[in-house]
Write a structure and sequence with these properties.
By secondary structure, the chain is of the alpha/beta class. The chain is built from seven helices and five strands; from the N terminus they run E-H-E-H-H-E-H-E-H-H-E-H. The radius of gyration is 15 Å and the shape is globular.
């Protein structure tokens, strides 16, 4: 079984993925962590030293490597992963178990504002400009996210409820 979680940063992909993997007794993979291990440096350092084009190329290679493997897994992708190259198509071809963890803009702001400093994409954006930035960014990415087989609205739901919803939809 291959399960892939997509969605904007802060949508809960890693949190949900780890709990779901534990319940299903299968491996959990975080694509960003996997890339960092394979490349021997952090994502911010990769961006800084080798540039975004290099990172996106490596992201695509590592994603395909994972998807083409025979292991059962739950994969948490980076927020931008589905939006570049043919990544979303590769994900959809690999498994019907693709879930978009959908969060409203106010929900994302509530989650992301306290951890802004640890999120390079929004670290330098003033708090009052976050809603507009996230809204615009989410609009640009929603085309890719919405191609997922399933969309799970997560606002106001417990982690357990979201995990149960995903489990009920697994093929």
């Amino acid at each position: 079984m291959k399960i892939v979680l997509v969605g904007y940063m802060g949508s809960g992909k890693s949190t949900i993925g780890k709990i779901l993997a534990n319940q299903l007794k299968i491996k959990f993979l975080d694509l960003d962590d996997y890339i960092e291990a394979e490349e021997g440096m952090g994502i911010p350092q990769l961006f800084e030293s080798k540039g975004e084009i290099y990172f996106r190329k490596k992201e695509n290679e590592h994603l395909k490597q994972i998807l083409n493997g025979t292991d059962h897994f739950i994969l948490s992708t980076g927020g931008g992963t589905p939006c570049y190259g043919n990544n979303m198509q590769a994900i959809l071809e690999a498994t019907p178990n693709v879930f978009y963890l959908k969060v409203t803009i106010p929900g994302l702001i509530e989650r992301l504002a306290p951890e802004k400093a640890h999120r390079p994409l929004i670290a330098n954006i003033p708090e009052e400009e976050l809603p507009e930035f996230i809204g615009k960014h989410l609009f640009e990415r929603s085309f890719f996210y919405s191609r997922a087989e399933h969309a799970i609205q997560t606002d106001g739901k417990s982690v357990e409820t979201i995990v149960a919803e995903i489990e009920a939809l697994l093929v």
